[in-house]
């Protein structure tokens, strides 16, 4: 008896098959650069991210809002500007905000951050609410603010 294993072939065909028409895939976010300045009373966070649109049509992320989390502690509710990403392409926005310093903040060590949020994903006439999603995350060391 000869046994044929179709699972590897099925997995290969599934990952290499284009998405069916009408299905919108969620964009990927990657932190390219993060800079945090210690303002003594707060942290000024500047994050540059690359947003990759895997869809063969343009998408817009609207009403982006969420929570900045520094060192695992919720720091600040925030909103980000709407973002348009061309078809099968990338966009590289820079977001800048101030967040309160965590009580355990130590400027000489590396800290973590992330932005958990929700947004409305718009593609043509279709809209989908994306909720409870980590848009981006990374690490930083602070730069001392000079007066």
Overview of the molecule:
The protein is mainly beta and 147 residues long. The chain has a single domain, classed as Sandwich (Immunoglobulin-like). The chain is built from one helix and ten strands, in the order H-E-E-E-E-E-E-E-E-E-E. The chain has one helix spanning 7-16, and strands at residues 28-38, 42-52, 59-70, 73-80, 83-85, 90-91, 94-100, 111-123, 126-140, 142-144. Strands 1, 2, 6, 7 and 10 form a five-stranded mixed beta sheet that branches. Strands 3, 4, 5, 8 and 9 form a five-stranded antiparallel beta sheet that branches. The longest helix has 10 residues, at 7-16. The N and C termini lie far apart (80 Å). Mean pLDDT is 83; it is low at 1-20. This is Water stress and hypersensitive response domain-containing protein.
Brief characterization of the structure:
It comes from Deinococcus roseus. With 147 residues, this protein is mainly beta.
């Amino acid at each position: 008896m000869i046994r044929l294993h179709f699972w590897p072939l099925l997995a290969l065909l599934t990952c290499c098959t284009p998405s069916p028409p009408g299905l919108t895939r969620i964009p990927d976010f990657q932190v390219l650069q993060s800079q945090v300045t210690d303002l003594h009373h707060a942290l000024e966070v500047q994050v540059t991210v690359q947003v990759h649109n895997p869809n063969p049509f343009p998408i817009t992320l609207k009403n982006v809002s969420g929570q900045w989390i520094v060192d695992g502690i919720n720091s600040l509710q925030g909103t980000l500007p709407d973002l348009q990403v061309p078809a099968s392409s990338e966009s590289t926005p820079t977001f800048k905000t101030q967040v309160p310093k965590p009580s355990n903040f130590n400027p000489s060590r590396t800290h973590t951050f992330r932005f958990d949020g929700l947004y409305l994903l718009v593609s043509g006439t279709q809209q989908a609410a994306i909720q409870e999603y980590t848009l981006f995350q990374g690490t930083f060391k602070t730069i001392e603010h000079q007066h």
